């Protein structure tokens, strides 16, 4: 998610435990009302959701209360042409250029796709094993490389980038990462990254040589001190970390400086009921503080409304 405006989520906010399916929920397939294994997502101010659908090699947009989505990038089969994608895993919107920025994972590239034409995109970063991406308020692009175990920052039109997290080989030391997936950047330009196979979320202050653990880091497990293959990550202005705890089928909140988290949605066993998740991957919030979760195994996007104080 592009960090132009963040919701002011109250410190002890609560969300409804039964989610509402706002996209997909009709199983696997290529129909316009289906969303097989959604991964990354971006939420507009009007609650329109843009979703990376890796299985269908397309990016789809679902407007509020819509019963089907519209393909806005890809959708022309698996491939590496400029009008094709291959297993896209994340998408953000660059408002300044009115375009989508897409991690086209299996093509090992990051693409810019104009929202007006929708017919084809252009490669802006090549030969990168990306999974997630984000952009800060100065329009720097941040992209984890899960093979090089680092996060790189790119200026507009820059193709090489600079390592800002990891880059010291695969491992679990504080200056290392192990299969980084999704990334978030706060207003101070600190980088938060889901260190997937270390089962932790790391924070790297701007210019730091090593990171600090802000969620998990106690090995793989389902205790409140642990995560299991974390993916989507979001940080609010108070420094509270929200993370999609994929293999534990829950979304957790870790307060700034906390040594354990708490479950805010899910955590009721793997399943397809309204209060259950099946390997959540991407997550985001709208400007009202409502939570959106890419419920990969259930092939749907769930919205959990924030409760009034």
TrEMBL record:
Transmembrane segments: none annotated. NHL repeats lie at residues 170-207, 218-251, 270-307. SUPFAM superfamilies: NHL repeat (SSF101898), YWTD domain (SSF63825). It comes from the Eukaryota. Pfam families: NHL (PF01436). InterPro entries: 6-blade_b-propeller_TolB-like (IPR011042), NHL_repeat (IPR001258), TRIM-NHL_E3_ligases (IPR050952). One of its GO terms (molecular function) is ubiquitin protein ligase activity. GO terms for biological process: proteasome-mediated ubiquitin-dependent protein catabolic process; protein polyubiquitination. Keywords: Repeat. This is Uncharacterized protein.
